[in-house]
Every structure is written in C-alpha cells, then in structure tokens.
Write a structure and sequence with these properties.
Length: 421
Amino acid sequence: MIKNFLNSNFNSINKLFLTYSIVTFILLGGVLLWLMGKTYASYMEVKKLEMEYAMAKIEMGYTNVFDYAESIMGHIGKQVGASDGSPYEIKEILTSFSRRSGSGTDSIKDSLSISMFSWVNDKMMVTINSEYGIIRAPYDVSNREYLAATRKDPWVMKVGSPVIGVVSGQQIIPAGLGVENIKRKKYIGTVVLGFTVNSLADKISRTINNPNLDFTILNKNGEIMLESTSGIFSEDAAFLRNVAASRITHDATVSPFSLFEPDESYLIAKTVHKRPYVIIAGYQNLVITKGLIMVLWPYIIGFVILSLIFFSVWYALRLQIISPILQLSNVSRLMIQDRDDEVVMPVSKVAEIVELTQQVQLIERYKLNLIQAKKSQERFFANMSHELRTPLNGILNFSLMMKKEMFGPLDPDYKEMASDI
C-alpha cells in the first residue's frame, strides 16, 4: 500500500512537471508566432506603401516629362505655325530649342531625356532634324499611328510605341504634336521628338531611389513603354496585356506575394488618368523573402535563446529536484523491502532536498537501530530460555519421580505438592 502510494505520487509529480513544461513551450511558441505574424503583416504593409509611393513618384516624373515635352513642342509649333514654313527657318527653330537650357543647368534635351527634334511635313515625310539639319533624302513615316493622330488632333501631344529611332539608332518613345498654320488654321506638319528609353528609365529610377524595386509603364495595348533595368516584365507579355485590359481604377494587387515562388514578383498596378498608361511596380518575391528573414531573424534568435534557457532550467530542475525526489522514492521502497544494501542516497544542492535526504538517512539509521535492538532482544530471550530450561527440567523430572513414588511411598501432602509442580 505504501509502495503504491509512493509510486503514484512521485510519478504524478514527474508527469505534472513535464506537462507544465510542454504547455509553457507551446505558449512561448504561440507568442512567437503571433509576434512574427504581426511583424509579417507590418512588413508587407510597409512594402506595399513603398510600392504605392514609388508609383506616385513614377507617375509624377513621367507625367512631368511628358507635360514639359508637350509644352516645349507647343512653343516650337507656335513659332513654326507663325513662320513662312521654309525648311531653313524650321531648322533654325528646332536647333535653337535643342540648344536651350531646361531645368537647372541641363539642356532641354537632357531634361526631357530626348535625342533630338524632328519635323514631319504634311506628307508624313521626315524632312528636318535638329542635329543634322535639312535631310537630303526625306523618309516616309506615314505608317506611324501616332503621327496620323497628330493630323486629326493638332496641338495635342500623341505618343507612339517604343521603336528604334531611324536617325538616332537608339530605342526611343516617339511623340509628336501636330502644328497648324496660325493664320490659315491648316495642318502643316508635326513636331516630333523621341524620349530615349534608357535615359528616361534611369532618370525615373534615380527619382524613386530604390534599386530593389522593379517598375514598368505600359500603354493601353499592354506594350512596355519603359521599364527598370531588371527586365523582368518583358518575360510575360500576356500578363501585361491582361493588366492593361483590366482597366484598373485604383492601386490594385496584380500579382500577390508568395513565399514559395521566389522567381515570381509581388506587383501592384495603377492607371495614369491624365494619360492612358498603366504603371506596375513591385518587388521580386526573393527580395521580399530576404528582407522578411532579416526582419524576423531577431525573433527566431530570441526564440532559440529562450528555448535554450527554458530547457536549461528544465534540465536543472530535473537534475536537482525531480530526479532526487524520484531517487528518494526508490530509497523508501528499498527500505520497505529490507533491501538496505542497495540504497543510494541522491546528491542535490537544493536545501529542501538535502534536508529531506538527511531525514531519510535518519529514518534509515533508526530502522537499522530498531533491527539491531530486535536482534539483541531475540538473543537475550534465547539465552534466558536456555538458562532457565536446564534447571527447570531437573525440577520437573524430580517432581515426576516423587509423584510416581519411585523411591518409596510419600506423605499424601508431598505427593500433591509434587503433582502441582
């Protein structure tokens, strides 16, 4: 009964301690996961705000360049429209604007990231260029849709799809503004310029000042007008066409973040209302994952440190408290079973355990003393029994002989006394 009591109580202490340890560990893990979840949500919100801010700067930079270009071409067009329309006078007007200063110390060409100004006459032939003057062999550009639009809607800048410039040999975004004769109100030609794609992309990249952020600007057909140096957007033309055709009215996620797709990107898009363009900006999933790891790394390290501390404390408690208690339980069982030669007392630095061990040792000494006293008592009674039995046997034998009157008749009173003995 005592043995069962000790087993049940000490095993329950061990199990209870282990249960509390597991529950504590689970709670620590739960708190860590909650903190990591909050951090993840905040980090992703920051990244989205960064993308929205970058798109706003891209829109502002891109729109400002186009507005400035439209303004400059408007000034050129008014001077051409007021002139007599001679090639030499148009050449001088284009050349003078090409050499003028724009914003700050940059020239107009540098401010607009353009290569040169050109003049397309009413027969859709490029006849004059600000860099090369009057072209001896004009070339036909009537197949350019944006130029046809300038004839129908003069004094409004029209932008074409990126092409390789015939004169500059660079990839450009062509733009034109139709010009009418001021007096006759008749279309006489188009002022044309080409935004150098690489220069304009570099300029916008410097504006957003975020080398990890990728961006692109699409026209209404989903064609790339320009993009960041990573070039990731040109890999999926169908995706770009779908984004452009979706008529996004506000900032929208077009490609969500996925931790398990490092080659994909987290992208949001918005439509530029002033001009029919769509801006897409975002981060590659791998970039976000690396940043997320850097943000969550302190929590992971903290959890590891807390886990090590927890298990160290658990091990110390196990070593200094639980194990000695279980060992004392085993000592008690051995003492009950009279197997004192197998008893090994636990070693602990905990004062209570040391005191309990001393008390068990004292009990063991008391038990040994009692056993020794019992053995002494047994020896005493054995000796006394032996010492008393010898004379008593003689008395009994003589009494028996007297009772049987073996040596002659006895007085009746003596015979009765011998029977009583």
